[in-house]
Amino acid sequence: MRSLAGYCRLERGGIWEDPVRGHRVGVLDATNRSEIAGMLGGRSAALVVSDPPYNIAVGGRRSERLLDETLVDYLAFSRRWVEATIPAMAAHSHLYVWLGADQFHGFQPLADFMILMRRYQELRSRSFISVRNQRGYGTQRNWMAVRQELLNYVKGSPPFHVVYTDIPKILRGYYKTVGGERTENLERGRSPTIRPGNIWVDIQQVFYRLEENVPGAYAQKPLKAIERIIASSSDEGDLVADFFAHSGTTLVASERLGRVCFTSDVEPVFAEIAIRRLERFRETGKTGFQTANPFPEMGTAAGLPPRSQSSS
User: Fold this and answer.
1) Is residue 206 part of a domain?
2) Which residues span the domain enclosing 83?
3) What are the pLDDT digits (tens) for 30-80?
4) C-alpha 215: how far from its chain's center?
5) What is the CATH number of the domain that holds 291?
6) Positions of E strands within 73-144
7) pLDDT in tens, 270-301
8) Number of domains in the chain
9) Predicted TM-score of the model (pTM)
10) How far apart are CA 171 and CA 187, in angstroms?
11) Is 220 within the bounds of a domain?
C-alpha cells in the first residue's frame, strides 16, 4: 500500500473533479457527515448505492483474513455511515445496500442490519433482492454459495422504471381476452425478454477472465447489476452517489448511462483506481483491466490494500 501511495493523485480529504462530465471522486470517510456534505456541495443524490464491508472474515488459514470484528462494533459503524448517507439523499430517492450473511456465524450481519434500519423513519423498505452469481464457491461439505443480498430502501416516493433482462420469454399461458380476441402473455408483452424480479439469476460474478475485472478488488460488484440499479431507480442526468467506491463500478456505470456520479473511498488507492478505470473506459472502451495491473508503472510488484472497514 505504501508503494502505491506515490502514484495516487489524491490524499486523505482530497476530491478530484472530472472535467468532462462533472463526476467527483474523493478520499473521504463514509461515516463523516461533514466530509460527505462537502463533496456534495449542496447537491443531493437521487440514488445512493452502498457496498459496505460485510463483517465476514475472508480468506483461509494461509491468507490474510479481512474484517471479522465484533457485531456490536460493526453495527456502530453501520449506524454512522447510514446517518451520514441519509442527509445526502434527495427528498425522493433510492438507497441500495449490498450485504452478506455469514452462514457460519448466525448469518450476521444481514439480519442485524435489517433490524437496525427500522429506526430510520425517513426510509422505507422497498425490496429484498437476492443476486445469484453464475460462478459460486465450490464446497463438498455444504451447499454451494452463489448468492448476495441487496436491500432497497426509499426516501419519499421516488420513480421506478421498468427494465428488462436478456432472458427470453419461453413460457406460454396466462390467456386473456383483449378486444374480443383471446391472447396469451407472450403476445401482450412489451418485450421479448422477461423483467427481473427480486431474484436476479443472470448476473456473472466478476473474475479474472472478464474485461471488467479489476485485479485485487476482491469486493467488486458486477457492472450489469449496478447498471440495472441505476437504470431502474434514477433518470438520465441525475446525481448518483456511492461512498464505498472500491473498484469504481458505480462511476463507470453512471458514465455509461448518462448520470453524474459522486463517489469516494477512505483508501486513496481505490479512489485512484476508480479514476483510472473511468479514464481507461473513455480511452479504450474497456470496462476494466481484466488481468492487467491498474498501476502499470509499478510493474509486477504492485499489490492492492485489503478492504478496510471504511471502504468497499
Assistant:
1) yes
2) 2-298
3) 999 999 999 999 999 999 999 999 876 544 444 444 456 799 999 999 999
4) 17
5) 3.40.50.150
6) 89-99, 101-102, 108-109, 123-137
7) 999 999 999 999 999 999 999 999 999 886 55
8) 1
9) 0.89
10) 12
11) yes
